[in-house]
């Protein structure tokens, strides 16, 4: 069985996006509540600042509750690959097996993959070729929804149409600065007595999440001059 993302083997690894100790991420305190709300509501909006752990941890929360397969979209190719690698390491699995990704012509996943990361553009191409069969997932996570584009808006339209026909799929929207009212209104007609559940991840000291080195322009010039 794959190890927990909070296990010692996973927490000893350093990643560019999260603290090596996953248990210190702000989102971990809401693990059970997040899963509970996603199961109770067909559309859930998770709002949390950059570095809170939502991109890497929410897919794992769902998988650990046997909710699979899971599709996660990211707005940029770099983020797709980086988060997929992080999650694969956390679960001690080879990238492309349980956890995979698809960007452009680069495919690293299989029919047995349980978490797959893609760009919105790739998902649109798949829907063009396969129709709504491309959305046959138990959960779809659209990350960074505040970074709007033609592709991301089209994905929202297609996913909403799919939700109207599929009562079993769960949609999770994630953002650092989402317009809550906009999404509540947009998905307000998917079903009687249904609503968009909103969960806010508490803030934390960013210094405990990121390992950063700040260089000011004068210092950079000095380094370049002496190099």
UniProtKB/TrEMBL annotation:
Catalyzed chemical reaction(s): ATP + H2O = ADP + phosphate + H(+)
Database matches in InterPro entries: DEAD/DEAH_box_helicase_dom, Helicase_ATP-bd, P-loop_NTPase
A Pfam family: DEAD
Keywords: ATP-binding, Helicase, Hydrolase, Nucleotide-binding
Origin: domain of life: Eukaryota
Record-level Gene Ontology MF annotations: ATP binding; hydrolase activity; RNA binding; RNA helicase activity
Helicase ATP-binding domain residues: 35-196
Documented EC number(s): 3.6.4.13
Protein name, per record: RNA helicase
């Amino acid at each position: 069985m794959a190890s927990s993302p909070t296990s010692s083997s996973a927490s000893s690894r350093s990643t560019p996006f999260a603290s090596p100790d996953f248990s210190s991420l702000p989102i971990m305190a809401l693990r059970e509540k997040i899963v509970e709300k996603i199961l109770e509501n067909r559309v859930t909006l998770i709002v949390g600042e950059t570095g809170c752990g939502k991109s890497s941890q929410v897919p794992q929360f769902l998988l650990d509750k046997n909710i699979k397969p899971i599709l996660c979209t990211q707005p940029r190719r770099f983020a797709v690959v980086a988060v997929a690698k992080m999650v694969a390491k956390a679960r001690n699995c080879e990238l492309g097996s349980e956890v995979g990704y698809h960007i452009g012509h680069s495919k690293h996943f299989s029919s047995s993959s349980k978490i797959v990361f893609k760009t919105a553009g790739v998902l649109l191409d798949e829907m063009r070729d396969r129709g709504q069969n491309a959305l046959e997932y138990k959960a779809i996570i659209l990350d960074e929804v505040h970074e709007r584009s033609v592709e991301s808006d089209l994905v929202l339209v297609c996913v909403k149409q799919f939700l109207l026909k599929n009562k079993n799929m769960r949609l999770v929207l994630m953002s650092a600065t989402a317009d809550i009212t906009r999404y509540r209104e947009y998905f307000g007609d998917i079903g009687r007595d249904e609503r968009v559940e909103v969960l806010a991840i508490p803030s934390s000291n960013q210094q405990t999440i990121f390992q950063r080195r700040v260089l000011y322009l004068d210092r950079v010039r000095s380094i370049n001059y002496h190099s």
